[in-house]
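User: I'm putting together a teaching handout on how sequence relates to shape, and I'd like one worked example. Could you take Avidin from Apteryx owenii, show the sequence you're using, and then write out its predicted structure as tokens right after it?

Assistant: Happy to. First the sequence, then the structure tokens directly below it.
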Amino acid sequence: MQVAPVLLVLALALATPSSSAERKCVLTGSWINDLGSNMTISIMNGRGEFSGSYHTAVTATNNQIKISPLQGSQHRNNQSKQPTFGFTVNWSFSESTTVFTGQCFVDKDGKEILKTMWLLREKVNSLSDDWKATRVGVNVFTRRRRE
């Protein structure tokens, strides 16, 4: 039996990139959504808590858009390759708060994608205006660059 062909086959098998199902989706880094908003998630601690910033591309106010802080947490099951997460953005330029919840996926091409749903609550001046204080939506984020 020749050793060289066996070693070559073994080396090729080990050098083959792992499939997207084996890649872990990592939340930290820079992301852009389908509306052009930019989000950066900083280093995550051991409890799955993270912070960062959100620069929205859209607003329902006439105020100048400013970068806003976010706080969140990833599901604590560190073994999950496609974790669920949630975060809150307290908008720096309006009296409103948005909560996002979602899941981090790796698609068949190895691209990381965040699928999210959000709920925005803005301040209103009276109980009778409560009906117009809440909006909901969905966003898809893709990684701006691999870090």
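A couple of points you could highlight for students: The radius of gyration is 20 Å. Confidence is low (pLDDT under 50) at residues 6-18.
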